[in-house]
Amino acid sequence: MHGRLKVKTSEEQAEAKRLEREQKLKLYQSATRAVFQKRQAGELDESVLELTSQILGANPDFATLWNCRREVLQQLEAQKSPEELATLVKAELGFLESCLRVNPKSYGTWHHRCWLLGRLPEPNWARELELCARFLEVDERNFHCWDYRRFVAAQAAVPPAEELAFTDSLITRNFSNYSSWHYRSCLLPQLHPQPDSGPRGRLPEDVLLKELELVQNAFFTDPNDQSAWFYHRWLLGRADPQDALHCLHVSRDEACLTVSFSRPLLVGSRTETLLLMVDESPLIVEWRTPDGRHQPSHIWLCDLPTTFLNDQLPQHTFRVIWTAGNAQKECVIFKDCQEGWCRDSATDEQLFRCELSLEKSTVLQSELKSCKELQELEPENKWCLLTIILLMRALDPLLYEKETLQYFETLKAVDPMRAAYLDDLRSKFLLENSVLRMEYAEVRVLHLAHKDLTVLCHLEQLLLVTHLDLSHNHLRALPPALAALRCLEVLQASDNVIESLDGVTNLPRLQELSLSNNCLQQPAALQPLASCPRLLHLNLQGNPLCQAVGILEHLAQLLPSVSSILT
Predict the structure, then answer these.
(1) CA 284, 289, 291, 293 torsion: positive or negative?
(2) Are 289 and 268 in contact (CB under 8 A)?
(3) Taking the chain, what is the end-to-end CA distance rounded to the nearest angstrom?
(4) Cβ atoms < 10 Å from Cβ of 230
(5) What is the CA radius of gyration of the chain?
């Protein structure tokens, strides 16, 4: 136990303790054997309750014995009178409480109490709430007790406002109470549901501002405690995006239709169905993901009959209806065009952050200023540094980009153990900013060179990109999600540390690929390139595999259509 001095014992005392433990072990094993023998013989009577009490009273985490007690109690329910049964249940509740005093974090004990209360015709839920309060006074972060309290509150239909007041009392007593903060994040959306916002919906403006003030008081009181910082991060989070079809693309050359969604979905499941209408007539098609895996994806595509695209009609109209999402999108391909698309105009609020009211923006600006002041007093507080970055992202990611990068460098120096995570988070933010700039410029070329990227994300936003420059970064692989770039013609990925090309598959328009100065070791690593039918130019200079014997012959056999290979 914490805070207790270790008392030295003599050899005689140590021997006496050993003998005592051996005696207890014999009794424990004897009682356990007796329980199993009775259970096997079907003798589920009150003697089993007595035997299991001896064992569970010392070790409440013997799950099989709790199962035995439940079997006995179920038998006795049919044999006992209501008065006898009430006495038995009262004794069982008392026994459970004694077990919890032995181990307040016993999974089996809390579960057995839930089971027992669930079988009573009129449970005393008020008593159970008092029990929870007593145990949380002893350990306010006992998540087993918090789980049980949520169960009791749900069964007793306790108003969320009362439970929120309970968390207020515990947080006021001690800000370092992660469980209370977490419970608030569950209760507030119940108290203030917002239409069409999903389970992670935003809070009303006035409630959100009060919560920001509360949590700011907490982390200014104890800057090194992470509980309030995590809750603050939840408050800054955005709601689930509304179901929508972001982009619809039709290619005449590939005879293919591709659609991107606001969230991953599994088409073909019971809940996710897509309907395709061509010139207002339904067309039955088979949907698949770009990488061929039948799993949830932002991008789905289908093959189109060539008869729809090779006739002499002036135009064709394609409309995809997402029934579960109650959304649809339509695009037109004209006679002399090889492709057609329709894409939502994206803004940073829609893609990567929440739209801010003037009042909330003012509050966040004030918080940013306060956090910067706190950081001057606590220059090595990692939670403060990360929150500054998140606040700048929430306010204006493009305006604060340079300053954000500086804070990332400071944070990596303060928290070197999480440098890889911070590099990935930095890469995510930089890619988001690049996508926004590309959207504002309405171009199909994306330059991401010399940004020290370690990971690629949001690739579903790049469906229409034709040229992508990833050179001079720290990428170790090209991910399978790269298959979402159905229009990609030129990919530059030189001067990285790429070891795998698993993501360079099924890119129907890829013509030029530059992979010089990477870490490709074996010729077999190039196998995914065989699925790119239009690949013409390949640069592999500076890769270890270029030293392999017969590499040119292997490449000629693997990629017969490639006209230019540099090794």
Answers:
(1) negative
(2) no
(3) 65
(4) 15
(5) 32
Please name the residue that has the structure tokens 């692989």: 477
Instruction: Copy the structure tokens of residue 525.
Output: 């690593």
What φ, ψ does residue 34 adopt, rounded to 5°? -65, -40
- The span from the CA of 457 to the CA of 305, in Å, is 33
Q: Name the residue among 109, 221, 132 with its Cα closest to residue 176.
A: 221
Q: List the beta strands (DSSP E) in 279-326.
A: 281-283, 287-288, 297-303, 315-322
By three-state DSSP, how is residue 63 classified?
helix
Identity of residue 345: S
Residue 192 carries which DSSP code? S
Q: Going residue by residue through the chain, which has 567 residues, state the pLDDT in tens, using 9 for 90 and above.
A: 445 555 555 777 777 777 777 777 777 787 788 888 888 888 888 888 888 888 888 889 988 889 998 998 998 888 888 888 888 889 999 999 999 999 999 999 999 999 999 888 889 999 999 999 999 999 988 999 999 999 999 999 999 999 999 999 999 888 888 899 999 999 998 898 876 555 455 788 888 888 888 888 888 888 888 899 999 888 877 566 678 888 999 998 888 999 999 889 888 877 778 999 998 989 999 999 988 888 899 999 999 988 777 777 888 899 999 887 788 899 999 888 889 998 876 554 456 666 666 677 888 898 899 899 999 989 999 999 999 999 999 889 999 999 999 999 999 999 999 999 999 999 999 999 998 888 766 778 999 999 999 999 989 889 999 999 999 999 999 988 898 999 999 999 999 999 988 888 888 999 999 999 999 988 888 888 888 888 889 998 999 988 887 888 888 888 887 777 787
Question: What residues contact 359, with CB distance under 8 A and at least 6 apart?
Answer: 205, 209
Contact assessment for residue 285 and residue 321, using Cβ atoms and an 8 Å cutoff? no
Helix (H, G, I), strand (E, B) or coil at 320: strand
CA atoms within 13 A on the CB side of 82: 3
432 near 397, Cβ under 8 Å? Answer: yes
Angle between helices 382-395 and 358-377 (to 10 degrees): 150
Q: Are 344 and 363 in contact (CB under 8 A)?
A: no
Q: In what order do the strands lie in the sheet with 339-343?
A: 287-288, 297-303, 256-265, 245-251, 339-343
- Nearest Cα neighbor of 293 from 527, 502, 74 is 502
Token pair of 373 as six digits: 């002041």
| DSSP states along 444-478 | SEEE-TTS-------GGGGTT--EEE--SS--SB-
Rounded to two decimals, what is the model's pTM?
0.79
Asked whether the beta carbons of 381 and 425 are under 8 A apart, the reply is no
Q: Dihedrals φ, ψ of 121, to 5°? A: -70, -35
Residue in this structure with the two tokens 């394609």, named with its chain if needed: 318
Question: Cα(157)–Cα(479) distance, rounded to whole angstroms?
Answer: 47
DSSP run (H or E) holding 327: strand 327-334
Structure tokens at 52: 């299991």
Residues found in the chain = 567
Whether residue 526 contacts residue 520, with contact meaning beta carbons closer than 8 Å, is answered with yes
Residue pair 422/452 in contact by the 8 Å Cβ criterion: no
